[in-house]
TrEMBL record:
Residues that coordinate or bind L-glutamine: 47-49, 108, 137-138
Lineage: Bacteria, Bacillati, Actinomycetota, Actinomycetes, Streptosporangiales
Keyword Transferase in annotation: yes
Known EC number: 4.3.3.6, 3.5.1.2
Keyword Hydrolase: yes
Membership in a protein family: Belongs to the glutaminase PdxT/SNO family.
Function: Catalyzes the hydrolysis of glutamine to glutamate and ammonia as part of the biosynthesis of pyridoxal 5'-phosphate. The resulting ammonia molecule is channeled to the active site of PdxS.
One of the Pfam families matching this protein, by short name: SNO
Subunit structure: In the presence of PdxS, forms a dodecamer of heterodimers. Only shows activity in the heterodimer.
Protein name: Pyridoxal 5'-phosphate synthase subunit PdxT
Reactions it catalyzes: aldehydo-D-ribose 5-phosphate + D-glyceraldehyde 3-phosphate + L-glutamine = pyridoxal 5'-phosphate + L-glutamate + phosphate + 3 H2O + H(+); L-glutamine + H2O = L-glutamate + NH4(+)
GO biological process terms on file: L-glutamine catabolic process; pyridoxal phosphate biosynthetic process; pyridoxine metabolic process
UniProt keyword list: Glutamine amidotransferase, Hydrolase, Lyase, Pyridoxal phosphate, Transferase
């Protein structure tokens, strides 16, 4: 079975490790560059993307992460993790550095103050069964996507209808929301299948 790493700089690393454990997938926290040599795929959790970027620099993880992602290591970013994977950010801090790899423009804190946190049902392309109950916490959305990026999920109704909240580009997956918080393992299972080369 493949081993999936979860970036452990900051954010909800433990929740992702718990979901992977529940699926019977070997999962380890990633905090040092050499940890990356032992994993077949990596989850970048939610949290605070500027803090995570700064910690990644301090732990000398920026170049190793870019190298592994550039060489095709599958990666899944949730919320702040999506921001880290994005090639471009709007509303970022001036000095905010991303890892990149995903040909999208992401808007940070896009949903605005009144709806900083909310839940919604997302009809996700590639998931069998019911729409996905998604929790958004000061979430970004994907403002625009490059040619190789598949949109997997959009907000269905209301004033944010059509906003893109889940994307995939080859081995890179990203969601604006937090599937590690709601007990539905389908997106983690999809990512594990991607790591196995089966999705
Ligand atoms: N607003 C956070 C950021 O910009 C992301 C929030 C989250 O990961 N829940 O980094």
């Amino acid at each position: 079975a493949p081993t999936v790493g979860v970036l452990a700089l900051q954010g909800d690393t433990a929740e992702h490790l718990r979901v992977l454990g529940g699926l019977g997938v070997p999962a380890v926290p990633v905090l040092r560059p050499e940890d990356l040599d032992r994993v077949d795929g990596l989850i970048l959790p939610g949290g605070e993307s500027t803090t995570m970027s700064k910690l990644a620099a301090r732990y000398e993880l920026v170049e190793p992460l870019r190298k592994h992602i550039g060489e095709g290591m599958p990666a899944y970013g949730t919320c702040a993790g999506m921001i880290l994977l994005a090639d471009r950010i709007v509303e970022g801090s001036a000095d905010q550095e991303t890892l990149g790899g995903l040909d999208v423009t992401v808007r940070r804190n896009a949903f605005g103050r009144q709806t900083e946190s909310f839940e919604g049902r997302i009809d996700m392309d590639g998931l069998d069964g019911e729409p996905f109950d998604a929790v958004f916490i000061r979430a970004p959305w994907v403002e625009s996507v490059g040619g190789g990026v598949r949109v997997l999920g959009q907000i269905a109704g209301g004033e944010r209808a059509g906003r893109i909240v889940a994307v995939r580009q080859g081995g890179l997956l990203a969601t604006s929301f937090h599937p590690e918080l709601t007990g539905d393992p389908r997106i983690h299972r999809l990512f594990v299948d991607m790591v196995k080369g089966q999705a």
